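Researcher: Please predict.
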Amino acid sequence: MAALFTPKTKRILKILLLIYAIIGIAGYYLQDMLLLHPKKIAQEERYNFPGVFEEINWKVDEQTSFHIVQFTVPDSLRKGVVLYFHGNQNNITRYARFAPQFTKAGYEVWMAEYPGFGKAAGKATEALMYQEAIQVYQLARKKYTPQQIIIYGKSIGTGVASYLASQRDCRNLILETPYYSIASLLRPLFGIYPLNSLLHFQFPTYQYLPAVTAPITILHGTRDGVIRYSNAQQLQPLLKKGDRFITIEGGSHNNLNDYPLMQQTLQQILQAK
């Protein structure tokens, strides 16, 4: 037994432990930067989006504010609203191009900007993102019934959307490229670390879906290099009767809207009475 711990072996173990500690410490302090990639926009800057839209900004505290962009439709054509929670990149300007597919079907689209993104001040946390989602929903309820509200999540926004749908009633929950949890995404690379204790963002989608009473539709591509298709598949056993898991063959993380199956699925949901 003593031979196993020779001076050389001890040096190797010390080096390995040092590497383990350095990677763990660096990952802990840099995780927000690695997960979220916001781009700020000055409050006075004007958006150049097609169609009619309005902006709402409200303060949470001295450092934090929420911001949403509401893409509107004429009163005579309005069927409801899509509460859209976007991905981890840039800001609403990256996702505004998806609004017309809903507004053309008679649905307003309210895109929530997370703190630190676009014109929203502060720093995003999981709790703040959930808080904003609830407030956006409460604002929507002043105008719409739950059966007129569709909750939509894209990429990291699927965790936020799933949480909201587990807490509030809606007509449908649509998840584009969702994940089982953030820890499950990182475990293949960093499984030697206690991720559930170290991660600032958990987004346990798997905990929320069983509590969602509205119909759920999941859309995921088989060639998604950001959120693996196999990771999203872990959500299938959690779906109830009538929910759908739509597989888009060859689809990657950012091009599902280019596939007819994606468009047909959305139109079926939006046109249903």
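Model: Residues 7-35 form the longest helix (29 residues).
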